[in-house]
Amino acid sequence: MNKGRLEAFSDGVIAIIITIMVLEIKVPGGETLTTLKPLIPKFVSYILSFVYVGIYWNNHHHLMHAVKKVSGQMLWANLNFLFWLSLFPVAAGWMGENHFALWPVVVYGVVLFLAAVSYTILVMVIEKTEGENSLVVNAIGNDSKGKISLLFYVAGVALSFINPWFGVTFYFIVACIWFIPDRRIEQAMRQQNTIDEKH
Amino acid sequence: MNKGRLEAFSDGVIAIIITIMVLEIKVPGGETLTTLKPLIPKFVSYILSFVYVGIYWNNHHHLMHAVKKVSGQMLWANLNFLFWLSLFPVAAGWMGENHFALWPVVVYGVVLFLAAVSYTILVMVIEKTEGENSLVVNAIGNDSKGKISLLFYVAGVALSFINPWFGVTFYFIVACIWFIPDRRIEQAMRQQNTIDEKH
Amino acid sequence: MNKGRLEAFSDGVIAIIITIMVLEIKVPGGETLTTLKPLIPKFVSYILSFVYVGIYWNNHHHLMHAVKKVSGQMLWANLNFLFWLSLFPVAAGWMGENHFALWPVVVYGVVLFLAAVSYTILVMVIEKTEGENSLVVNAIGNDSKGKISLLFYVAGVALSFINPWFGVTFYFIVACIWFIPDRRIEQAMRQQNTIDEKH
Amino acid sequence: MNKGRLEAFSDGVIAIIITIMVLEIKVPGGETLTTLKPLIPKFVSYILSFVYVGIYWNNHHHLMHAVKKVSGQMLWANLNFLFWLSLFPVAAGWMGENHFALWPVVVYGVVLFLAAVSYTILVMVIEKTEGENSLVVNAIGNDSKGKISLLFYVAGVALSFINPWFGVTFYFIVACIWFIPDRRIEQAMRQQNTIDEKH
């Protein structure tokens, strides 16, 4: 099967998701600077979501790079991941429109959580297909970063009921953790190359 | 001719269709959880349609993989298929907006039916171009799965006049039938490889 | 320079144009079949425009296939062509919304005409870059098909002032003329291959 | 790492940005020619923005062509650039909707300025990764064109407070300066080829 087409399709969907999020920022009604003011929370929500989708694209890019065989299960796990990612624009729009109120922040966190779960499933399916001792398994390891993220999302959602800004802060922290692309795969690949050259 | 560009264009269109469907789920008006309630049928409609477009992408992916020569007729049969696929967002939106009422469910079924017919035409054009004994012909065979789907769509549309949920159930069953990607092609390719290796 | 990226970008833009046209068909307000009635002219306009964009994609596909060197001028001629193509959705939407009234039909014809002119410019720039005796020059020849189209657009726009349906008919005839993809290039390539094999 | 996928993703995002800008030109309400009149400033704004995005795509095309190694930093600098580019549709729509009034013109200029800054950062990151004596460093040199652009944007924004049309004129001049694609890279590549051939 063809890895290239899976990457191209995923890139297409992610490119569209990251771009249609900006459509939630509607052209303001007046021509004065004050008419931009209601757009500020939407803009903050857009930046956060843009960074999130960017992180996922980066990690997806690294993950797929390590894939050797594409299986039918992988295609579906990938589509499942893209499905949850596709809910980012509407969740981000709702959160921005309502100035980071309780329920929009909670729902945004749930969408982030489910996207992270679906990404974890994708990684697991790939690891199963590629087999032990594969590049992906060596690179991801026990995936402590992924597990911490899931914990932080749950904490963020829970703490939002005290104050929604706690939730936003936790989501922001996860973004910071992931901001650094998955160097583990890069490192594993370099090691693999070194091993290959020795033989 | 260039198969890669046909795949890339189809991937682009399918990626856009699958993503703009989410635009039918408008950002809700209020900030409470109850304002999400009217979105539930739209969300269900979105999931069903996402799975459908995902199935078509998967099968298209497998089908194109088996293609060796691209003809002018194939380009048009492919565009015809993409045309019917492009009606999914508006049909799904109408069905979700009206809580699976009679006519929206019927029209959705008709669009599903015509998309399936156009896909069958695409397969037939490819089989004709590739010739007998080709990979595609061996793989698809008499296409019983495709014929059953067409029958189920007709049944679903007809039974909707008794209760629209019968229709939705039938559409859902077809999705389940196709959920498993077209392993027939995968199998045929493996056999082909075995034969090639023997010679 | 990289022909692949020019093709990929053009495919992306054309894929988006062909798909966002469907967004002009808004989800109808009611749940009865009669609420679909106002969509019929929009749907007809969508079909006509889909076929047009499909024809351009097909011909662009063939044209680029014959290109050997990509120049800076070619990039701009290509962007100019994509610009006029990008006006199809709004022109088609206006024509459909107003049930093929005079001015929408005239403006649609003018957009078709200017897209055709920009495509002709693209062909000329490519012919100039590729040089005489190139594949493209042999294939396109004196481009009688392109010249007839321009004439028919002008005629269609003019006759719309008697009755807009004359205009629509003329636009439809041009679509029929071009429906057959540019076999001239296919033929020229086959001849080229035959010549290459002889040497 | 894979340069192809970075290019494909950037092309996807840029293709979507350049195309969704046209969605700001809404289908006019009436069927007479006069209903098109309010669209004129939007159309002018669309043309200017289309040319800008086209210029960036062209230069990005040339820049990436000279890249040999893709680093994690490069991915983020590229995403940052795409972020600012994604604000063009809403900024252009606001400017067009308000007939080039003061604040929309100022904000448009600020977006242009920040996109230019983010592009400069991308160039700097690439130059750092590729190292001295690389193709990119030789080609871009001290980037006088980029520095002049930044200056013109600042001047345009400042002069808008006297008359917004001064601002628009300055933005237009920058577009003219860049209209000619970055031939410096093309020249440097040709020289490189000549050097390579000599050895």
Automatic annotation (TrEMBL), chains A, B, C, D:
Catalytic activity: K(+)(in) = K(+)(out)
The UniProt record lists the keyword Transmembrane: yes
Topology in membrane: Multi-pass membrane protein
Location in the cell: Membrane
Name of one Pfam family that matches: TMEM175
InterPro entries: TMEM175-like (IPR010617)
TM segment ranges: 6-27, 39-57, 77-95, 102-126, 150-180
Signal peptide location: none
GO molecular function, one term: proton channel activity
Record keywords, A-Z: Ion channel, Ion transport, Membrane, Potassium, Potassium channel, Potassium transport, Transmembrane, Transmembrane helix, Transport
GO annotation, cellular component aspect: membrane
Keyword Transmembrane helix: yes
Family indicated by similarity: Belongs to the TMEM175 family.
Name of this chain's protein: DUF1211 domain-containing protein
Organism this protein belongs to: Pedobacter frigidisoli
